[in-house]
Write a structure and sequence with these properties.
This is Glycosyltransferase family 1 protein. With about 350 residues, this protein is α/β, with parallel strands linked by helices. It is built from 11 helices and 11 strands. Helix 6 links the parallel strand 8 and strand 9.
Length: about 350
């Protein structure tokens, strides 16, 4: 179902890849939903949609019922286009429309902006493959610092400042975890299980698993949202030694589900604003820390109740994220000069 638009309507085109379910693509759909709730005309706008008969992921139908494609954006000055940092170059295709970049993942930008940035982010081999496969350029292109920039994490905020973007061009536009995770269950028994995301930081996680003894590890993969919720609700610990390119959802979904959280210090994980947990649950990702990390994991499993209490601040932040996001959306609307009810 394609979006039907009147020619004289002002529209916010929120751009994201078709069909894929990630934290970033869900967030794009959530923004469209909140904008339309306050009578701001917004439409999810897909690229890379050609191979899908229906580009709307079934999980996102709770947010949107219609869509537009990147080819049909109306390039007029009353409209606004918001693109993800991973595809900032899309803005070069338009001359009149007002523009913004949403920084949900700093690392996704870096790995796609020249070989050197890619090398620093994903390593030599992966960076070289990206250039040879024409998924990245040899030289960095840089992004337009004069358009509006919206950040999802403090990590992204500091990145933009360090890149020389004026504070007057920077605004916060956060996110929230799926409301499903906030539904309380009183009948759930916690099991002595450690969960991890095999897609992020697995090289180091594998070392932890190999060095451990008597600990049950479960990878979170190939599950529906409901199945992930149930697994998190039944487990005691979630670890994440990935790159944390933004304020990642898995740690928050795990925390609000009652897991103790142990992370590295990469990306957003080093910022208390993004992951507000005590410092002794964050470890530099190096082999000399493996023993200390496993000791912390064991302590969380054996003394779950006392460790659980130390994540109250994090859980309270997560519970308030939806209301904070709604405030950010209203500030976003004012920032782009739109009147709303």
């Amino acid at each position: 179902m394609v979006f039907l638009r009147k020619d004289n309507d002002m529209t916010v085109f929120v751009v994201c890849p078709a069909f894929h379910k990630t934290g970033g693509t869900e967030l794009a759909h959530q923004l469209v939903f909140e904008l339309n709730k306050i009578d701001v005309s917004a439409i999810i706008t897909y690229y890379d949609y050609e191979k899908y008969k229906d580009p709307i992921n079934e999980e996102f139908r709770q947010y949107v019922k219609s869509y537009e494609t990147i080819d049909n954006i109306i390039d007029s000055e009353e409209n606004f286009i918001l693109v993800p940092e991973i595809n900032f170059a899309l803005l070069n295709n338009y001359s009149n429309i007002r523009k913004g970049i949403w920084w949900m993942s700093v690392d996704n930008y870096l790995k796609n902006d020249g070989f050197i940035n890619g090398f620093r982010t994903v390593g030599f081999i992966n960076a070289l493959k990206a250039v040879l496969g024409k998924r990245n350029t040899l030289f960095a292109r840089g992004f337009d610092k004069n358009v509006l920039h919206f950040y999802q994490s403090e990590y992204a905020h500091q990145f933009l400042i360090n890149e020389g973007v004026k504070e007057s061009n920077i605004s916060k536009l956060s996110d929230y975890v799926n409301d499903l995770y906030l539904e309380k269950r009183t009948d759930t028994k916690k099991n002595k299980v450690v969960l991890y995301n095999p897609k992020k930081g697995y090289d180091f996680t594998k070392k932890l698993i190999n060095k451990s003894s008597g600990i049950k590890w479960i990878a979170i993969e190939n599950l529906t949202t409901q199945q992930v919720k149930e697994l998190l609700s039944e487990s005691m610990v979630y670890i994440d030694f990935g790159n944390h390119p933004g304020k990642d959802r898995f740690p928050r979904e795990a925390a609000i589900s009652g897991c103790c959280i142990i992370t590295g210090l990469n990306g957003s994980a080093k910022y208390y604003e993004d992951i507000p947990i005590p410092d002794d649950y964050k470890f530099e990702k190096k082999e000399s820390n493996i023993s200390a990390i496993l000791d912390k994991v064991t302590d969380c499993l054996e003394n779950y109740d006392s460790n659980f209490e130390k994540f109250a601040t994090y859980r309270n932040m997560i519970r308030n994220e939806h209301s904070v996001f709604c405030k950010d959306v209203k500030a976003f609307v004012k920032r782009i000069g739109v009147q709303y009810k």
